[in-house]
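Re-run requested by the PI after the first attempt was lost when the workstation crashed. Everything re-entered from the original request form. Ligand of interest: flavin-adenine dinucleotide.
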Amino acid sequence: MTHRLVGSIAGQQAAAFALIGEHASRLGIPLSGGDEEKRFSIWSSTAVFRRLDGDCAAVELESAERRLLLTLQSNLAEVFEDGGFTIEWDEVNEGALAPGLALMQVVSATRRSPGFTRVRLRGEEAARFATGSLHFRLLLPEDPAAPEWPRISRTGRTVWPERKIHKPVYTVVAQDEDWLDFDIFHHAGSPTCDWVETTPVGQTVGVMGPGGGWCPSGSPLYLFGDETALPAIARMLALAEGEVSAVLSASAEDLGELTADPRVSRTEDLIAALTATVIPEGAYVWFAAGAESARAARSHLTGMGLAKSQFTAAAYWS
Ligand SMILES: Cc1cc2nc3c(=O)[nH]c(=O)nc-3n(C[C@H](O)[C@H](O)[C@H](O)COP(=O)(O)OP(=O)(O)OC[C@H]3O[C@@H](n4cnc5c(N)ncnc54)[C@H](O)[C@@H]3O)c2cc1C
């Protein structure tokens, strides 16, 4: 099923088209079409802008997923509003929760190993966090007793409440129709760890997404990561269809049952393990850890001549 939204921009056609060009270039995505029409694709959705008579422009959005359609609507509404234009949409869900945001209840928070607490959330939309992407943003409102959430404004953009919401990224480790689990790595100075230590069972949190990558398809697949990447690597080990190996800098206790997996090894130094790896043709390298390590990994892999399509070097924290 294809979901659609239509909008119009009154006046300043040339300036509106210039804004589309700048926006696509900021996003790093190609803009196609001629003088009369511009189009781009992002988040599995397409946006088309057409010149109309009377200095006006039409906007048409299409997506296979309504959540992604509304995400693009919100993004364009914000960009155009900030640029001094208003897009008049044929449909705006004014007051609804931000696109992709589900509210879920904390069912349990259990120390599963010395370094990690496993949190189970329950909510009707859990199943949609099982596909396409591995990650989500956890939304922790400043006052859990009176939470305020980002909502869609009259113009279609997402408006965040004035009271601060902490929104770190986590990885779904398991899920079913109405629950999902994720693992929080304990480290100093972490608002999320402080929150989970308050035993928040029964609280409502926001879960936004899913987003981020899925398991890369290259074979062999080489995975490298620290504790924060452990949940993602565990998911990828289960999802990978070809040859795969993983090197982690987590402790044996935190690795748990992965220590018995012959594809998994432990290291104290991820960069040394990466540089010692001979990478054959067709392989894919996936690396995620702190920003400094991710920078060193990226520099090593590009230095070896790997193209951007052959590796990921992600900063999971900074
Ligand atoms: C795609 C993706 C998936 C992720 N999945 C997971 C996951 O499943 N489980 C998980 O635990 N983390 C995961 N992370 C990492 C997590 O988002 C960060 O560690 C984040 O900073 C946690 O928020 P916070 O409230 O703890 O800290 P923040 O408020 O972001 O940071 C507070 C302080 O903690 C420091 N800090 C953050 N992380 C660490 C760390 N690992 N070690 C030492 N100091 C740190 C920061 O530098 C800062 O000074 C993921 C990150 C990404 C990008």
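Saved to the shared folder this time. Residues 135, 168-171, 182-185, 187, 189-193, 212, 228, 231-232, 316-318 surround flavin-adenine dinucleotide (CB under 6 Å).
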